[in-house]
UniProtKB/TrEMBL annotation:
Enzyme class: hydrolase
Family under the similarity heading: Belongs to the glycosyl hydrolase 100 family.
Name assigned to this protein: beta-fructofuranosidase
Pfam families per record: Glyco_hydro_100 (PF12899)
An individual GO BP term: carbohydrate metabolic process
Length: 421
């Protein structure tokens, strides 16, 4: 560590986060929140996986046991084609594989979390139980490539940004797919005692596809691994202001998206896809365009979609129950403690300790905000302009962001399987 211990406020934030993880823990696994509200009080795949990563960063045997239960419950309710549930209601037995479309990232996070659990614990019996489910997911993900060209096609509402305008070849999902394939490779070598060379080639190919299709070169050159050269050229011509600044969020047959996807840009660095020059460009963009000194947290997407924008008409009908994406709220410019925790982990890994600590303090500050007069509400998000708490309170993954960030500053990474595995 390059600096001294965290101050008392940081320590309180961490202990409060651990307490919330324990409150989310049940005999069936981690609930997204213990709050009695709508469908949040369930075992969610992506929330459960992120809480699992946080639990594995601790030495808490009870939290680690809950992580195992979470993954086992998800596997027990796997669909007939290999699909992992978006969520399971342990009280009623209700299973959801998604809303109007399925959730691609539920399967990806499940595989990653299973492999990370095994790597952290060495629990061979757990791995034996999970392997059939993991293999079914692997087959299903291959089918979701549709054209066998290496990238997953993600429908609208098909991942965590399930009420936002994003679909097609979404970068966030490709990065999780890359990490899932690394997980498959690591588990194959453990089980069979040898590398799967064909899978290794697929991993290398996907790595090159991501690097060649989601970063616009400032000099206007077209990489050799473009998925569709004409589409890439049209995208670069339409948004030259994005070149050499950050990773593009998605593309589809209709063109590229141009908003900054914070989760994707963080994962591109954390998973070793970005090189040092690209990391520096993204760091500069975040510092110059995104961070508020009072509450330094990352927004889900930037810039905000306003009612005057042409995307607004589509965005305002993109919801299941109630509209959440008003300007500076939820995915539309809301600030997220959870995803900022992964950014802290990446900064800490790169030795940017002072900056990581500043963002971790922002996470603790956000989590300490009061809702209905109750401090330490661990809100889902923070309003991007008013800096007030929003969404469902006592979110487990807001606590997980604090745990992941703080443990990363102690040298514990949330991802033990890396690009060298």
């Amino acid at each position: 560590m390059q600096e001294g211990a965290l101050d008392a406020d940081g320590n309180e934030g961490y202990e409060r986060a651990i307490d919330l993880l324990r409150a989310c823990a049940t005999a069936d696994g981690f609930l997204a929140t213990p709050t009695q509200r709508s469908n949040y009080r369930r075992i969610w795949a992506r929330d459960g996986a992120i809480l699992t990563l946080a639990a594995l960063c601790t030495d808490d045997a009870d939290l680690i046991a809950t992580a195992r239960c979470t993954l086992e419950v998800l596997a027990a309710h796997q669909g007939p084609h290999g699909e992992i549930p978006s969520n399971v209601d342990p009280a009623t037995g209700r299973i959801s594989y998604g809303g109007t479309t399925g959730r691609v990232d539920a399967d990806l996070w499940f595989v990653i979390a299973c492999a990370e659990f095994w790597r952290a614990t060495g629990d061979g019996a757990f791995l034996d139980r999970m392997l059939p489910a993991i293999e079914k997911v692997r087959f299903l993900l291959g089918a979701w490539e549709f054209n066998n060209r290496g990238l997953l096609y993600v429908p609208v509402t098909g991942d965590w940004a399930d009420e936002y305008l994003q679909s097609g070849y979404v970068l966030y999902d490709q990065l999780l797919y890359l990490q899932a394939q690394r997980s498959f490779a690591t588990l194959h070598e453990e089980v069979h005692g040898s590398a799967d060379h064909a899978l290794g080639e697929r991993i290398g190919r996907l790595h090159h596809l991501i690097r060649g299709n989601y970063w616009f070169n400032g000099d206007g050159t077209v990489p050799g691994d473009t998925y569709h050269e004409v589409l890439y050229r049209k995208g670069l011509e339409a948004a030259p202001h994005c070149a050499d600044r950050y990773w593009m969020p998605h593309f589809s047959p209709s063109g590229y998206g141009y908003r900054f996807d914070a989760f994707a840009n963080v994962l591109a660095s954390l998973f070793g896809v970005a090189n040092d020059a690209q990391r520096e460009r993204v760091d500069a963009f975040i510092a110059d365009e995104l961070l508020n000194e009072e509450m330094p947290l990352l927004p889900a997407f930037h810039p905000v979609i306003e009612p005057v924008d042409e995307d607004w008409e589509d965005l305002q009908v993109m919801f299941s129950y109630t509209f959440k994406n008003r300007p500076y709220e939820f995915h539309n410019g809301g600030l997220w403690p959870m995803l900022t925790g992964f950014h802290v982990a990446d900064l800490a890994r790169r030795g940017r300790t002072r900056h990581a600590r500043a963002l971790l303090a922002g996470i603790h500050r956000a989590n300490s905000q009061a809702i209905d007069g109750q401090p330490w509400s661990f809100p889902e998000f923070i309003h991007g302009r008013k800096l007030t708490p929003g969404g469902t309170p006592r979110q487990g993954w807001s606590a997980a962001g604090a745990v992941i960030g703080q443990q990363a500053l102690q040298g514990r990474t949330p991802f033990r399987i890396n690009g060298d595995a």
